[in-house]
Specification:
- The chain has 2 domains: about 5-250, Aldolase class I (TIM Barrel), CATH 3.20.20; about 275-330, Helicase, Ruva Protein, domain 3, CATH 1.10.8.
- It is built from 14 helices and 8 strands.
- Strands 1-2-3-4-5-6-7-8 form an 8-stranded parallel barrel, surrounded by 6 helices.
- It has helices spanning about 20-35, 50-55, 60-70, 90-95, 115-125, 140-155, 170-185, 200-205, 230-240, 250-265, 275-280, 290-300, 305-315, 320-330; strands spanning about 5, 40, 75-85, 100-110, 130-135, 160, 190, 215.
């Protein structure tokens, strides 16, 4: 079984500076929790403490972000990032006191030793200790696996292979994933960036080689070329029989009605809008779009469900009669 970690509110915040405002934070938390995403990483793009230590003040404070997520506690596993170089025990104590489930400590691959103290502190305060091996491609698969095992022995609960520059090829991901998964008993995660347009291919390579958690961001929002879009990850993995607990339709409608309009104010363009993603999921050709949209509007049914259901019956040449009949069935 593979699970999803959404990083929109942490890595995705790089597209607006260092952190989202309260409005977008609430929109994203609503979409993620209402659609059943199990793990959410949020807060300052630089992690807890970055506001003070690194001057990442183009964001809300950690305390403000922690206030915003209080109504969502218990609806998902919620945590923050912690750059190992900015470790202060007070930040860990703050996160624990406000109900965070985890902190994900991060350091460049090869620098795992600087994370031992923060990992142990995270555990001391009763949270799960996760880890990101940033720039994972700096190490060979065998060296990366050694770091994973070293940190597992220190009490780590999850190890993330982070392709920070989106430079890894599927074969690279496959070897790193397999080596780490074989070396440890804790879950291994994969965090993909899309600089070579390979985020989905790399996610599949990770899945096929033992990774148990995929990192993603709604609409692909993240540093540089972005992450694998969360909605794409759900769509693809549901084709493999995974992520069944996630309501993709709820997610897509939330993106359409709330997140895309909010991000337009920041001039952020969604490269794979929900409508186009549904065509990829269903195999429906875009030339039938007008028929689908008219029927959905007039019969008062969800457009995306209609496209999927009609395509199960006829992907080659669905006519208006079939589309209308299917719409009426959905109304029942």
């Amino acid at each position: 079984m593979i699970r999803l970690m959404d990083c929109t509110l942490r890595d995705g915040a790089n597209v607006v500076g260092k952190g989202f405002d309260a409005e977008i934070t609430k929109i994203v938390m609503d979409i993620l929790t209402e659609s059943g995403v199990p793990i959410i990483e949020m807060g300052n793009a630089g992690g807890i403490g970055a506001y003070e230590v690194a001057g990442f003040t183009n964001a809300l404070t950690d305390a403000e972000y922690l206030d915003l997520i209080q109504p969502y506690l218990g609806k998902a596993e919620i945590g923050m990032f912690l750059n190992a170089k900015r470790y202060r025990e007070a930040y860990i104590e703050l996160g624990a006191s406000r109900g965070l489930n985890f902190l994900r400590c991060g350091a460049d691959a090869g620098d795992a030793k600087i994370s031992v103290e923060p990992v142990k502190a995270i555990k001391k305060y009763g949270m799960k200790a996760y880890y990101s091996a940033m720039k994972a491609y700096l190490l060979s698969p065998e060296e990366l696996a050694e770091e994973a095992k070293f940190l597992e022995d220190c009490g780590l609960d999850q190890f993330t292979i982070m392709d920070s520059a989106g430079t890894m090829l599927p074969d690279d991901v496959a070897r790193a994933s397999e080596a780490c998964a074989k070396a440890v008993s804790i879950p291994v995660a994969f965090h993909c960036h899309n600089n070579l347009g390979l985020s989905a291919a790399n996610a599949l390579a990770a899945y096929e080689n033992g990774v148990q958690i995929l990192d993603c961001g709604l609409m692909g929002m993240a540093r540089s070329a972005g992450n694998m879009p969360t909605e794409v990850a759900v769509a693809v993995m549901q084709k493999y029989g995974e992520f069944k607990e996630i309501d993709l339709y709820s997610m897509l409608n939330g993106i359409d009605s709330r997140l895309m309009p909010a991000m337009e104010k920041h001039q952020y363009h969604n490269s794979i809008p929900p409508y186009d993603l549904i065509l990829g999921i269903s195999g429906a050709h875009s030339s039938f779009g007008k028929l689908f949209k008219t029927a959905a509007s007039e019969e008062h049914v969800d457009l995306y469900r209609l496209i999927v259901e009609v395509s199960r019956k006829n992907r080659k040449n669905p006519n208006e009669e079939l589309i209308r009949e299917t719409a009426r069935e959905l109304c029942k």
